[in-house]
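Working notes for the structural subgroup meeting. M.R. asked for a predicted model of this chain before we commit to crystallization trials. I am recording the input and output together here so anyone reviewing the notebook later can reproduce the run.

Input as submitted:
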Amino acid sequence: MFKFKQFTISQDRAAMKVGTDGVLLGAWAPLINNPFNILDIGAGTGLIALMLAQRATAQQIDAIEIDEAAYEECVDNFENSPWGDRVFCYHADLEEFTDELFEEEEEYDLIVSNPPFYSENYSSGNEQRDQARFQEALPFDMLIECSQALLSDNGIFAVIIPYKEETNFIDLCESVNLFPLKITRVRGNSNAEIKRSLLAFTRIKQEPLVDELIIETDRHIYTEKYKELTQDFYLKM
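Returned structure, recorded in C-alpha cell form:
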C-alpha cells in the first residue's frame, strides 16, 4: 500500500510497483491544453491516471492495462479514489483498443504512457514483471502509431523513457508528424548521468522547451525543483 496526499495505491498484485518514473510523468505531463479527456496506456496500478485526475479537470480519464492482475488492482484503486466517477480502466490490448476507438472517431486531448523498457534480451525469471518492463510487450513504434491515431488535433502525447532511447523515440514520433513540445532530462543527482527523458509531443512543429531535473542533492535530500514538482502528491514533501 502506498499512500499519497489525496489517494492510496494498492500494489500487491501488479508487477510494477509505485516508482519515481510514474510519479515524475504524472506530475510533469503538460496540461496547457486543458484536456477534456485523458488516456493512460499501460496503466499498471493506475498511479499516473490518478495523479492526472487530481491535477486536471478532465471529465473522462481512461486507462488500459493488458495484464489481468494489474488491471484488477487498477480498477480497485480507481474505485477507492476520490475520482471514481471520472476514471475508468479497460482490460485491453492497445492495438484492438485503438482500432475500436478509431472506428468510433474517439480522440483524447492528453495521452500518457510510462512504457515498458529494457530492450535487451534479459529475463528476471518473473514473466509478469518482464512483460511490464520489456519493450517487446509494447514496442515504441506501436505505442507511437496508436497514440497518433487517438490524439486530438490539439492533443499532447507525453512519455517517460530511458535517456538512451530519446533520439530514436523523437525520430519515430516525427515520422508520424508528432513533434517535441517539451523535453526534461532527469538525473538522480548532479554527479549522476542522465537516466530518463520526459517527452511531450504535439502535432505542431516548434522549438521545444528543453530543461533538466535533478532529483536529489544528497541521499533523501531532494532538490527544490523536484519538491515543487511532487509536493502535491508525496506525504512528506
